[in-house]
């Protein structure tokens, strides 16, 4: 007879892998969602880029809080917001020269 016993397999590694895949999915979907929101407001709705950035930033922070994504998500949103702000001012300055 078989020595198999139902429910005795160690699934700790499977749970850890599933948790990491879910975290990658949350991060990817969140970053794509915030990016699509920003670009839709700027290019499709013809909104100025600074208000679109503020709305996208606030939406990203709220989404991170709702999904309990932690401080790394907030730091990423702040970093991307600052990067977008700096690049926007540089592009506006270059466009204003011509």
UniProtKB/TrEMBL annotation:
Transmembrane segments annotated in the record for this chain: 24-43, 49-67, 74-95
Keywords linked to the UniProt accession: Membrane, Transmembrane, Transmembrane helix
UniProt keyword annotation of Transmembrane present: yes
Protein name from the UniProt record: Cytochrome c oxidase subunit IV bacterial aa3 type domain-containing protein
């Amino acid at each position: 007879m078989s020595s198999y016993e139902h429910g005795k397999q160690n699934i700790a590694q499977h749970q850890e892998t599933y948790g990491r895949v879910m975290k990658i999915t949350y991060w990817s979907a969140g970053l794509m969602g915030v990016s699509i929101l920003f670009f839709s407001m700027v290019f499709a709705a013809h909104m100025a880029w600074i208000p679109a950035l503020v709305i996208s930033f606030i939406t990203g922070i709220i989404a991170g809080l709702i999904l309990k994504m932690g401080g790394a998500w907030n730091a990423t949103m702040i970093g991307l917001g600052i990067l977008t702000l700096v690049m926007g001012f540089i592009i506006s300055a270059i466009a204003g020269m011509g």
